[in-house]
């Protein structure tokens, strides 16, 4: 695989990395019509990289068949209009099968979800990602790091073994730790994506991130794109104006240990008539009395 292709993939990560929701129909199945419409809205709104099967897409609440469906539908709807970064995870054979499926359909990259296991050793973390990366050498691989214990040196080790590990979604809520981790791992070796969305983007950009993930982008693509434009131009006051605009929405998502992270996004979409508010356990829909505030915020962003 030529380095030119990876350069294209690296460039794609330095952007608003949208994490689309997975809308559900009244019978609880994936609502493919609403899903296509939401994806089209993102693409028409200027989004250029999509992550099907991310956490805002309720990755862990989907069946294996549904995860494949979401990947297929996203790649089909996007066509050549966006770069696709497919979320994969669970046990190693499942993650590899998902990554190969993504590759067959024409995805350019996979994002590897944080290993879900009560006992994660740092060397074992490297082994997990290496097994997946080596199975799909043609794809760019992006580890999703939520483990504050992981050292930057371990990521450097993974990058040395696997040239296709090209970016990192860093989601430890500590800007100083991020700055140190990125430098220990190799600031220029990887593309750094602020994995905690708009609230953390300004501080993480100042430390070396060049992209950020977003669930809010499902609701108001222009708001997220305004923030990245400000950050790219180094206009932190303008970025913080957007930050102030999205602060309350993101506080609602982060409350109670992020219990309503997806719920609030779907509630906002429901208030705009774009999909049902349904989420799957262990998430839950918002109580009636909290819905009006979300609707009010979404209405204020309406484009």
Detail the topology: elements first, then pairings.
Elements (H helix, E strand, L loop, with lengths): L2 H11 L2 E3 L13 H13 L4 E2 L13 H15 L4 E6 L3 H14 L3 E4 L9 H14 L4 E6 L6 H10 L5 E4 L4 H11 L5 E4 L6 H6 L4 E4 L6 H12 L3 H23 L2 H11 L16 H14 L2
Parallel strand pairs: 1-8, 2-3, 3-4, 4-5, 5-6, 6-7, 7-8
Structure in a nutshell:
With 303 residues, the protein is α/β, with parallel strands linked by helices. It contains 12 helices and 8 strands.
What sequence of helices (H) and strands (E) makes up the elements? HEHEHEHEHEHEHEHEHHHH
Strand order of the largest sheet: 1-8-7-6-5-4-3-2
Distance between the termini: 41 Å
**Main pleated sheet:** 8 strands, parallel
The helical percent reads 40-55%
**By helix and strand content, what is the structural category?**
alpha/beta
Residue stretches low in confidence (pLDDT < 50, at least 5 long) are: none
Count of β-strands = 8
Task: State Rg.
Answer: 18 Å
Shape: globular
Average pLDDT works out at: 96
Determine the strand fraction and express it as a percent band. Answer: 5-15%
Please report the number of helical segments: 12
Pfam families: DHDPS
Protein name: Dihydrodipicolinate synthase family protein
Family: Belongs to the DapA family.
Keywords: Lyase
